[in-house]
């Protein structure tokens, strides 16, 4: 008997988990245009000879979308494979001083329900940030305005326009002028208004009615504060151009978060191209950036920005081609020496049957990729990382009361490769000090000696 497909054309909603696979009927796959899969960050369906159903694989992008099926749409939800505290990850990824600011704003929709929907969490997080900023720091700036003033003049007369457009037509009482004026309609405010409108558009994709209505209401309230700002489209150069223009200091954090929300780090890189059809972001990148923020808050080590290179040479030592960066995810200078860490969100469910498996709370199974271990061992053999301590950091989702597992290690090399675990679940903040203790175990001296 042929097993039933997971997805059929009659389904109202389609569900899949990050880095998992489902089967779909031929009727459903035939009803979807091929480019739609790529637009929604899903590989094209595959079917082997003899299979009745198609196989659809999900990558690292999670979120919600409307999958175009013939003349209509079907709701599609890609869930993270770990039960993660999305607020916690966003806060550390994008530099908030206070964790879970959304909680302090007393969102009236059921917070527990919102937490169960990662997309609602992301929207709630950004809308709350923009709401708090627009209440306190939204500012006017001087802009050159051009207006026709009847019976008077202000600042600079636009003489050429006055002669050709008004004196020549018998209306000398109308005087075109150019003058500086305080206005909300500045380039940074235009970018924030456009991002707020993008957030409002994406609220319509949420599956939870209470979250959809409440977050849309809050987004409209934020938009109302930008009433004097023109609607302008976002494009890929919007935020880089703003940074080159030296925006006000208080605007830099919110502009960075708006850029991340709209384009760069976890949302679709083609801003607005499918604004009403999909809201997907990269969980690998989100975890990597969150871990960077967490490590930056560790008092014992300092993140190093520069990276050494390696080059292919001929038998005479002449360099061939361009040098390549030797680039661990995080390089930290500590009192004890150098610490190299790699974030491995993508490998918590590694697929190779030959990789060793670790049994831990907070993750169904965790396979340690041999390739990741070999990579760190290779990093350590670069002269810039001699005598470094190396480790891999895996995310896990612990339940209440479960302690953070102690560090494991891979033996057999010149030095051990440590395996550390970071709780990203509902109790992530509670277990964060223990994670810092694990790092201190690798570098057991105080931060004061580093400053000395």
Compact description:
With 452 residues, the chain is an alpha+beta fold. The protein folds into 4 domains: 13-79, no CATH class; 86-138 and 188-279, no CATH class; 141-183, no CATH class; 297-451, no CATH class.
SS-based class: alpha+beta
State the total count of DSSP E strands: 19
Distinct helical segment count = 15
Overall tally of domains = 4
Low-confidence stretches: 97-111, 264-276, 347-351, 445-452
- Characterize the overall form: globular
Calculate the mean pLDDT score and round it.
Answer: 81
Alpha-carbon distance between the termini?
A: 72 Å
What is the CA-atom radius of gyration, in angstroms?
27 Å
Largest sheet: 6 strands, mixed
Q: Which SSEs are present, and which pair or pack?
A:
Layout lengths: L12 E5 L3 E4 L1 H5 L3 H6 L14 E4 L3 E9 L2 E8 L6 H8 L7 H4 L6 H5 L2 H19 L4 E10 L5 E2 L1 H9 L6 E10 L3 H17 L5 H16 L13 H7 L6 H12 L15 E5 H14 L5 E2 L5 E5 L5 E7 L4 E4 L4 E6 L13 E2 L7 E2 L2 H11 L8 E8 L11 E3 L6 E7 L4 H15 L4 H5 L1
Parallel strand pairs: 1-5, 14-17, 17-19
Antiparallel strand pairs: 2-3, 4-5, 4-9, 6-8, 7-8, 10-13, 11-12, 13-14, 15-16, 18-19
Helix pairs in contact: 3-6, 3-12, 6-8, 6-9, 6-11, 8-9, 8-11
Describe it.
The protein is an alpha+beta fold and 452 residues long. The chain folds into four domains: 13-79, no CATH class; 86-138 and 188-279, no CATH class; 141-183, no CATH class; 297-451, no CATH class. Helix content is 34%, strand content 23%. It contains 15 helices and 19 strands. The chain has helices spanning 26-30, 34-39, 86-93, 101-104, 111-115, 118-136, 159-167, 187-203, 209-224, 238-244, 251-262, 283-296, 370-380, 428-442, 447-451; strands at residues 13-17, 21-24, 54-57, 61-69, 72-79, 141-150, 156-157, 174-183, 278-282, 302-303, 309-313, 319-325, 330-333, 338-343, 357-358, 366-367, 389-396, 408-410, 417-423. It has a six-stranded mixed sheet with strand order 10-13-14-17-19-18, sandwiched between helices. A four-stranded mixed sheet has the order 1-5-4-9. Strands 6-8-7 form a three-stranded antiparallel sheet. β18 and β19 (417-423) form a beta hairpin. The model is unreliable at 97-111, 264-276, 347-351 and 445-452 (pLDDT under 50).
């Amino acid at each position: 008997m042929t097993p039933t497909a997971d997805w059929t054309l009659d389904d109202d909603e389609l569900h899949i988990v990050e880095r998992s696979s489902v089967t779909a009927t031929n009727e459903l796959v035939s009803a979807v245009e091929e480019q739609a899969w790529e637009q929604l960050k899903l590989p094209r369906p595959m079917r082997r000879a003899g299979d009745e159903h198609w196989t659809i694989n999900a990558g690292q992008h999670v979120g919600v979308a409307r999958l175009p099926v013939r003349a209509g749409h079907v709701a599609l939800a890609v869930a993270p494979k770990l039960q993660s505290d999305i607020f916690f990850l966003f806060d550390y990824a994008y530099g908030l001083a206070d964790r879970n600011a959304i909680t302090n704003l007393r969102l009236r929709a059921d917070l527990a329900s919102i937490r169960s929907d990662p997309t609602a969490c992301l929207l709630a997080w950004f809308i709350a940030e923009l709401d708090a900023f627009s209440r306190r720091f939204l500012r006017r700036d001087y802009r050159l305005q051009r207006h026709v003033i009847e019976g008077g003049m202000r600042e600079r007369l636009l003489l050429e326009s006055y002669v050709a457009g008004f004196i020549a037509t018998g209306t000398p009482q109308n005087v075109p002028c150019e003058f500086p004026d305080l206005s909300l309609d500045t380039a940074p405010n235009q970018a924030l208004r456009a991002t707020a409108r993008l957030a409002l558009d994406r609220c319509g994709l949420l599956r939870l009615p209470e979250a959809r209505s409440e977050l849309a209401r809050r987004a409209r309230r934020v938009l109302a504060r930008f009433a004097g700002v023109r609607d302008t489209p976002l494009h890929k150069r919007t935020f880089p151009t703003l940074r080159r223009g030296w925006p006000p200091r208080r605007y830099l954090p919110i502009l960075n978060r708006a850029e991340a929300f709209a384009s760069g780090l976890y949302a679709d890189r083609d801003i607005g191209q499918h604004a009403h059809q999909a809201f997907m972001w990269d969980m690998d990148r989100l975890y990597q950036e969150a871990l960077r923020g967490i490590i930056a808050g560790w008092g014992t080590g300092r993140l190093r920005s520069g990276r050494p290179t390696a080059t292919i040479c001929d038998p005479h030592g002449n360099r061939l081609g361009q040098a390549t960066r030797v680039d661990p995810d995080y390089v930290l200078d500590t009192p004890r020496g150098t610490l190299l860490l790699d974030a491995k969100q993508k490998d918590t469910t590694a697929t190779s049957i030959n990789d060793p498996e670790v049994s831990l709370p907070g993750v169904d199974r965790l396979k340690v990729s041999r390739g990741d271990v070999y990579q760190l061992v290779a990093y350590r053999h670069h002269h810039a990382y001699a005598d470094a301590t190396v480790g891999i950091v895996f995310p896990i989702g612990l339940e209440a009361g479960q302690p953070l597992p102690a560090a494991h290690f891979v033996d057999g090399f010149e030095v051990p490769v440590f395996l550390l675990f970071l709780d990203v679940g509902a109790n992530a903040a509670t277990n964060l000090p223990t994670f810092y203790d694990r790092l201190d175990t690798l570098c057991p001296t105080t931060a004061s000696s580093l400053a000395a």
